[in-house]
Structures are given as structure tokens and as C-alpha cells.
Write a structure and sequence with these properties.
Elements lengths: L2 H29 L35 E11 L2 E10 L4 E13 L5 E11 L3 E10 L8 E6 L5 E3 L2 H6 L2 E9 L6 E8 L3 E13 L5 E12 L4 E7 L10 E7 L6 E2 L1
Antiparallel strand pairs: 1-2, 2-5, 3-4, 3-6, 3-7, 8-9, 9-12, 10-11, 10-13, 10-14
């Protein structure tokens, strides 16, 4: 190989290396992994690992815990009870798609007599109720009831526009035949363009002291956008006490709600 050829090869090699380095410097920024909300890293505008910022998932330190205001059991017939936990979500625009819970029941001596476990969702903002029906505890009578969530919640942010548009109202609430075969009737209206599937509706009856004395539940497979439905709740036995207030709570998973 001649000296001139060697020099040409040297210049070519230098040029190739230079172009390679230049190309790498240009391409390298685009080779970086694009931040996402599922890469198990804190990056982009995230406030924590895969949460906060533009992620749907809210960071646990950004949200307030759900408050358990009370939990009680209500006799339906001899040996059968309904259990209700009344809670408050303090977070205006955060909800939970799915979470496990547990009711525990004790007798008048605070001796454990049974439990009921389940799974539910948590709606955004405000008070809501978790209802369990047909609880049997043998010959015991549940006097004390406790409620707790049994797993770490996964909070998801909910669109403020969706929350503002999604309106469900209850009207024309009427209790009849309280002392014989009680029946509570009402009208529920979906005043939005969203279809709401799997609507669980809980009724609570209050006496003059502001205490809940009985409860019931009904269910709708679907409450379509702009639809009104008549609903009713029944009890197999008379309801004791002076009922002065009724509360009806529509419960639905906001993450299942879709536009018409």
C-alpha cells in the first residue's frame, strides 16, 4: 500500500468518525426514553412515581383519606340485617375505581360475631354509602359495627368537566305504610348526556334525633342520559319511630360513565 493511499484512508477514517460523532449528537436527544405514567419512574411533570402531574393516577400524598362517619346494622327480619357505612370523600376531583373493605360485627358485650367483606368504588367529592344486605349472624344480635378498607387505595383524577356535567337528582320522595308494609318511592333523574350503568341507590330513614333507624337499597342496570325513572324501596316489617327525614344516595362508578 502506497503512502498516498494510506493518507487517503486516514482522512476517510477521520471523516467517518467525525460524521458518526456528529450524527450521534444529533440523534441522541431523540433516543431518550419518552416519559410515561407507566414506566415505574418519576419523570416528566409527575409529582411521584407514575402519579400526579398529567397522569391519571393521583399521588397518595396529594389526596385526603376517606372519613368513615358511621357504620351500623339495621334489622330487616329476625336473624337478618343490613349493614351501612356512611363515608365522606374530601377530594373534589379524585375517585377510586375499586377497593376492598370489611364490616365487623360485635354483640352487646363487644364480642366478635361475624364479618362481611366486599369490594366497591369510591365516588369523587361528598358523602356516600356502602351497603351490605342479608347479613346473618346466627342467634346473635349485632350491636356494634365497624368498617375499614383492607387495601391501599389507588386514586385516579377525574375530569372537572365531567364532574360539572354529570348531575343526578332525586325528587318526590314519599314514605307510605310505615306501620304495616313500608314503601319509599322517589324519582331519579340523570340530568346529563352521560349514560350511567350499574346504579346502586341507598335509602336512609332518619328520626327526630337525626339518627338513622332503617335502610334499604334498589338497583338500576342503566340510567341513560336525560332519563327519569321511578324507584321504590320496601321493607317486610313496620319501621319503628318517627321518620322525619329521608336521604337517597345514588351510587355509581364514575369511571364506567360514558357519553351517549
Amino acid at each position: 500500500m502506497t503512502w498516498a493511499l494510506k493518507r487517503q484512508l486516514f482522512y476517510v477514517s477521520v471523516l467517518v468518525i467525525f460524521l458518526g460523532v456528529l450524527g450521534f449528537l444529533i440523534v441522541f436527544p431523540f433516543m431518550k426514553e419518552i416519559p410515561s405514567c407507566t414506566d415505574n419512574k418519576q419523570n416528566g411533570d409527575e409529582k411521584g412515581i407514575d402519579c400526579g402531574g398529567s397522569c391519571i393516577k393521583a399521588c397518595i400524598f396529594e389526596v385526603d383519606k376517606v372519613s368513615v362517619l358511621w357504620a351500623r346494622t339495621f334489622k330487616v327480619v329476625s336473624g337478618r340485617y343490613n349493614a351501612v357505612a356512611y363515608l365522606e370523600n374530601h377530594n373534589k376531583d379524585a375517585a377510586i375505581y375499586k377497593i376492598k373493605y370489611k364490616f365487623r360485627f360485635s354483640d352487646e358485650n363487644n364480642i366478635y360475631i361475624g364479618k362481611r367483606e366486599g369490594e366497591t368504588f369510591i365516588p369523587a367529592s361528598g358523602n356516600f354509602a356502602i351497603f351490605e344486605a342479608g347479613i346473618g349472624v346466627g342467634n346473635s344480635i349485632p350491636v356494634y359495627t365497624s368498617f375499614e378498607f383492607t387495601e391501599t387505595p389507588v386514586w385516579n383524577n377525574v375530569s372537572e368537566d365531567k364532574l360539572d356535567q354529570l348531575k343526578v337528582f332525586v325528587s318526590d320522595i314519599k314514605l307510605e305504610n310505615q306501620n304495616s308494609s313500608p314503601r319509599l318511592s322517589a324519582t331519579i333523574k340523570n340530568d346529563s348526556l352521560f349514560n350511567i350503568p350499574e346504579v346502586s341507590i341507598v335509602a336512609l330513614l332518619y328520626n327526630e334525633k337525626g339518627n338513622v333507624v332503617s335502610s334499604s337499597r334498589t338497583y338500576l342496570d342503566m340510567l341513560s342520559g336525560e332519563e327519569s325513572r321511578d324507584i321504590s324501596f320496601t321493607w317486610p316489617e313496620p319501621i319503628q319511630g318517627n321518620i322525619i327525614s329521608k336521604e337517597i344516595i345514588p351510587m355509581y362508578n364514575i369511571f364506567l360513565v360514558k357519553l351517549k
